[in-house]
């Protein structure tokens, strides 16, 4: 996210409304003298997010990783959990921090999400839950996953870090599973600098989550669980309320960039665009491409070429989680078990997409990719 040079284009930037719009919120927080611990803005943001996202019960957190750790605690998940290796490492770290063993399953080559066809073969007597990820905000096959979970009596927690505002058949994707966990990090479509949330099914579960994120307190003198400090503060919450007012503009600008990229790369041999089904809404969180073997240069060479043009494309997600030292010794982490994920991690490249991305920078990105495609093809 940091600009290394004046003209350097990051893969993403947080949307920052005019400072004058945020000042009244800060002044009100100063006047109230209530800066954290379930303050007015915290409560208001939970309410407005429920309305905006189409969910009933949502609990705010200071970041998405603490939210994911707490979701596993709230459901008392133990043993083994089936998950994807093609994600940000926090997905598996949350399991590790809870003493849970990740079991990696390969991904679908089109959606790049956890492949339902491979889940059942990985289930053992120690399996207690599934932890799929809506990668790049492309929803998992939620109906198939729900059917598998029901058959085997498993919990489902969705890592929905990318999936803010995404809907499936006109229903919020966050309403599937036992819980969904959001991230409001500065790189996300909706951000509160740092932040996150858990969406759950009922008021009783929300109360347990709220207790756990506040050290287990239920009142001034009563602690009912070994909780954690995961509370979102008032400045974060106020910024979130201001962000919500601009979501229409944010989505519109992201959609235009997505459309421009798709038009530019639709007929480029060796570039595969990520597909989102028509029954799902997009939030344009990322713009991944797969650099296939028939592209004239490798993914890493294209990455380097963009860097020389001061464009910070990112190889999300490379390496696979299963290739990091703390996980690669697991029986499920071998490349032979994860051929699709392994190939995707070596081909994927996320191009910059964010509301403030200038048209001339978009043009520079497009021209660099096309120049690599045609210049190198002519040379070969």
From TrEMBL:
Signal sequence coordinates: none
EC number: 2.6.1.-
InterPro entries in alphabetical order: DegT/StrS_aminotransferase, PyrdxlP-dep_Trfase, PyrdxlP-dep_Trfase_major, PyrdxlP-dep_Trfase_small
The entry's keywords: Aminotransferase, Pyridoxal phosphate, Transferase
Residues where N6-(pyridoxal phosphate)lysine is found: 188
SUPFAM superfamilies in alphabetical order: PLP-dependent transferases
Pfam families: DegT_DnrJ_EryC1
Organism: Paraburkholderia caribensis
Family: Belongs to the DegT/DnrJ/EryC1 family.
Protein's UniProt keywords contain Translocase: no
Taxonomy of the source species: Bacteria, Pseudomonadati, Pseudomonadota, Betaproteobacteria, Burkholderiales
GO MF entries: pyridoxal phosphate binding; transaminase activity
This protein's name: Aminotransferase
Active site: 188 (proton acceptor)
Gene Ontology biological process terms, A to Z: polysaccharide biosynthetic process
């Amino acid at each position: 996210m940091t600009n290394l040079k004046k003209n350097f284009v990051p893969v993403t930037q947080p949307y920052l409304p005019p400072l004058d719009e945020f000042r009244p919120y800060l002044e009100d927080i100063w006047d109230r003298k209530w800066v954290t611990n379930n303050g007015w803005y915290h409560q208001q943001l939970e309410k407005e997010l429920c309305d905006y996202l189409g969910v009933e019960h949502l609990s705010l957190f200071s970041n998405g990783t603490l939210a994911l750790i707490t979701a596993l605690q709230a459901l008392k998940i133990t043993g083994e959990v089936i998950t994807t290796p093609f994600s940000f490492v926090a997905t598996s770290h949350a399991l590790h921090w809870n003493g849970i063993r990740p079991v990696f399953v390969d991904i679908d080559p089109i959606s790049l999400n956890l492949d339902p066809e491979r889940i059942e073969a990985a289930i053992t007597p120690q399996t207690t839950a599934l932890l799929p990820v809506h990668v790049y905000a492309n929803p998992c096959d939620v109906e198939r996953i729900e059917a598998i979970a029901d058959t085997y009596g498993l919990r489902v927690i969705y890592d929905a870090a990318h999936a803010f505002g995404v809907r499936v058949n006109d229903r919020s994707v966050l309403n599937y599973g036992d819980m969904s966990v959001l991230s409001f990090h500065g790189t996300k479509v909706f951000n509160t600098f740092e932040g996150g949330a858990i969406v759950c099914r009922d008021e009783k579960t929300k109360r347990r989550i709220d207790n756990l994120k506040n050290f287990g307190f239920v009142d001034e003198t009563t602690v009912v669980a070994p909780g954690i400090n995961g509370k979102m503060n008032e400045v974060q919450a106020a910024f979130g309320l201001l962000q919500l007012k601009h979501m229409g503009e944010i989505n519109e600008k992201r959609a235009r960039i997505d459309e421009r990229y798709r038009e530019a790369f639709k007929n480029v041999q060796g570039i595969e665009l990520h597909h989102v089904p028509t029954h799902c809404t997009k939030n344009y969180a990322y713009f991944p491409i797969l650099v296939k073997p028939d592209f004239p240069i490798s993914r890493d060479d294209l990455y380097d070429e963009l860097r020389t043009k001061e464009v910070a494309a990112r190889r999300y997600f490379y390496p696979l989680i299963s290739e990091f030292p703390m996980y690669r010794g697991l029986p499920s982490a071998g490349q032979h078990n994860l051929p699709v994920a392994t190939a995707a991690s070596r081909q994927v490249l996320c191009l910059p997409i964010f509301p403030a991305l200038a048209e001339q920078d978009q043009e520079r990105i497009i021209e660099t990719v096309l120049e690599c495609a045609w210049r190198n093809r002519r040379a070969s």
